[in-house]
Design brief:
Blueprint: E1 8-11, E2 14-17, H1 18-40, H2 47-69, E3 78-79
Parallel strand pairs: 1-3
Antiparallel strand pairs: 1-2
Helix pairs in contact: 1-2
Length: about 80
C-alpha cells in the first residue's frame, strides 16, 4: 500500500488521512479554476473577487504541493480551511 494513504494529519482538530484531505483540496482547486475562468468571461468581471479567488487558488495549490511532497517522517501538521 502506498504510504501516502497511511499518513495522517490534524485538520480542524480531527485526525484525517492525507489522501482524503488531498482529494478535498483538489476539488477546491478545480472549483476555483472553473469559477475564475467563468468570472473572467463576464462582460464586466469583478477584478477584486477574481483576485481573492486567485489568492485562494495559490493557497490551495501550496497545500496540495505540501501534501504531495511531505514525507512520513515529518511531524503532524495542523491546517484548517
Amino acid at each position: 500500500m502506498n504510504t501516502m494513504y497511511q499518513r495522517k494529519i490534524v485538520v480542524d482538530g480531527h485526525l484525517a488521512e492525507v489522501a482524503n484531505v488531498q482529494t478535498k483540496v483538489e476539488q477546491d482547486i478545480d472549483f476555483l479554476q472553473n469559477r475564475i475562468s467563468l468570472m473572467k468571461k463576464q462582460s464586466t468581471p469583478n477584478q477584486v473577487v477574481i483576485e481573492i479567488y486567485e489568492n485562494m487558488l495559490r493557497s490551495r495549490k501550496a497545500v496540495l504541493s505540501w501534501l504531495q511532497d511531505g514525507s512520513q517522517g515529518e511531524p503532524i501538521a495542523q491546517i484548517s480551511y
